[in-house]
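Hi there, hope your week has been kind to you so far. Would you mind checking whether the tokens look sensible for this chain? I owe you a coffee for this, so here goes:
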Amino acid sequence: MTYPSVSLLLPNRDNERIIDLTLERLLEHTTYPNFELIVIDDASTDDGLSILRRWRDERRFDNFTLLEREHSGVARSLNAGAEVASGDLLVQLDGDATVESPAWLERMVSFHQSDDRVGVVTPLVTFEDGRIHAAGINIVSEKGMHDRGTRPKEPAGQRTFHSIAERMTPKEAGSLVTEPAEVDSSLGVHMLFSREIYDELGGYDEGFSPVWFEDLDLALSSRRLGYKVFFVPGVHIVHRPNLRGDRTAHSLGRRMAKRVRSGVATAVPERLRRKVREAEQKDTAYRPHELRRVQHHYEHFREKWGWDLMNPDMDTLLERYGDTEVCWAYDPARREAGEEIAAAWTASLTLDAGSS
């Protein structure tokens, strides 16, 4: 196996409670011989930045760069990291997600390098409770966008939010997470792609600032360039958003505001409080300001791509993108090509195991 240079891009903001574990697991399981780690701190308001400075100064990673920036969001942070990256391949990571598989990078690089048509590869991402976050992302279908490994709860054509879905466990998913497979797009909690793709696309679309959807947009955009996107089994990432700092109150001002809200809440009957929460969250895990952000991203995607992520008009979509890799699943030749790539990579693993 050849070892192209790889740049790991890790944006961070307010991950004090998890960033040590994230870096410890990354150090433990990254045995790839030719990589650099670029951490981009997005003006953290907690002690996460001091933790990152300690990691930089201790030099436990051979090649560790820390960029300290004013707050601008994940998309801009990733673009800033890519500007100084030297790798032939780029990997987007999350500050609140831990790598749980030894030799993970060797495995992802081996799939990416196995065929020139491979553009983006993504692994299995679960939540701490064991449910699947994503094994790739489904976008181009009548059901609309949903994480692969989930089942939308709303009927096709009447969906409101992609997160309203039933999540499977890896055991329930079976071969969906144990076999390599072509997928529409990728979750940026963890994905690998070439510098060439990044440059040709002009980087991450900052219209998806401050966070979310910049990842699936980049991966799907690689298909417009003629590349394919694959789920690669054997690499497990645990996403731990409950340990993100922005779900706690760090500053005095935030703590005071939280106390005021709590005081008001105690004066309101629980039944009414529950109804208000349900109305605001619309049966999702998002808070009201996050829902507004998601709605903005849906609209930005619609303007950019020409279809509705939740309730796509498939006739219009196929007419616009039917002759591209975006609609690979609806083209027998493209679908067969993806199956051949996955099968060839699996066969190569068997040969390597037999010769060792």
